[in-house]
Amino acid sequence: MRRTYSQIDMDERRKIARWRAAGLSATVIAEKLGRHRSTIFRELKRNAFEDPQMPNLSGYYCVTANEMARERRAKLRKLARFVHVRQAVIERIVHGWSPQQIAGRMRLERHPICVSYETIYKFAYSADGQAIKLRRHLPERRARRRPRHARRRHGRRFSPELNILHRPDTVAERKQFGHWECDLIQFRKKFGKANVTWANAHTSPWQRPRRKKARGARQANRLSDRTGPDPSASTEADSQSHSHWP
């Protein structure tokens, strides 16, 4: 079943202020208004007036709460009023920045006009954003943005069994020579469907003798008998097909 939401209006805010002054809890107010209690808790938290110099004047006032909510909704129009901010946001989205990165960079650089990533998402899916097909440059490239209750964070991409902590002790403590150490690097998908580079580093004390005489060959054989075989010799052939610890 599709969920529908409606913003709290001025009439409801008058009732909330009156019942709050009478000492009613947010749960009781929610039942009287036919709202979910989380809606009332959020309203009291976001739109309550706070005076740090005179705390006795702090509280929930319907007129002040309605003005604070109106100003918050007007943040979406920042990208419509300030052309240079809108153009900067569009350019960064086209170049692969996510709305979270853009909003975070603006706060980090103390930009005089900051917008949240929710504002950027709303702009991307608004009529102006759809006109320039801005959603195609977003990370998920969805035709429509999912409702907030349907969004969820992705879990782990790798199973716990492949954690590096489960590698053998001989590998973790580097007691043997000849083991492979590799890093998987995945590039941006716009360069291809599966651009993965395997950068490996191989260390071994062994060297292939060149034109050794009989005496040198006998010395090499004695050294091999004393130290044991090179562990990399047996894994070098099938290293291309193994990307995790056995």
Structural description of this entry:
The protein contains twelve helices and two strands, in the order H-H-H-H-H-H-H-H-H-H-E-E-H-H. Among the domains are: 10-73, Orthogonal Bundle (Arc Repressor Mutant, subunit A), CATH 1.10.10; 82-146; 167-206, no CATH class. Strands 1-2 form a two-stranded antiparallel sheet. 8% of the residues are buried. The chain has helices at 10-21, 26-33, 37-46, 62-73, 78-81, 83-94, 99-108, 117-124, 127-131, 169-172, 214-227, 231-235, and strands at residues 180-186, 196-202. With 246 residues, the protein is mainly alpha-helical. It starts with 9 loop residues before the first helix and ends in an 11-residue tail after the last helix. The radius of gyration is 31 Å and the shape is elongated.
Question: What is this structure's SSE topology?
Answer:
Blueprint lengths: L9 H12 L4 H8 L3 H10 L15 H12 L4 H4 L1 H12 L4 H10 L8 H8 L2 H5 L37 H4 L7 E7 L9 E7 L11 H14 L3 H5 L11
Antiparallel strand pairs: 1-2
Helix pairs in contact: 1-4, 2-3, 7-8
Continuous helix count: 12
Secondary-structure element sequence?
A: HHHHHHHHHHEEHH
Structural class, by secondary structure, is mainly alpha
Low-pLDDT windows of residues: 234-246
Distance between the termini: 47 Å
Tell me about the largest β-sheet. Answer: 2 strands, antiparallel
What percentage of amino acids are in beta strands? 5-15%
Strand order across the largest sheet: 1-2
Mean pLDDT: 76
What oligomeric state is this? Answer: single chain
- Strands, total number: 2
Tell me, what's the shape? elongated
Helix content: 40-55%
Q: Any idea what the radius of gyration is?
A: 31 Å
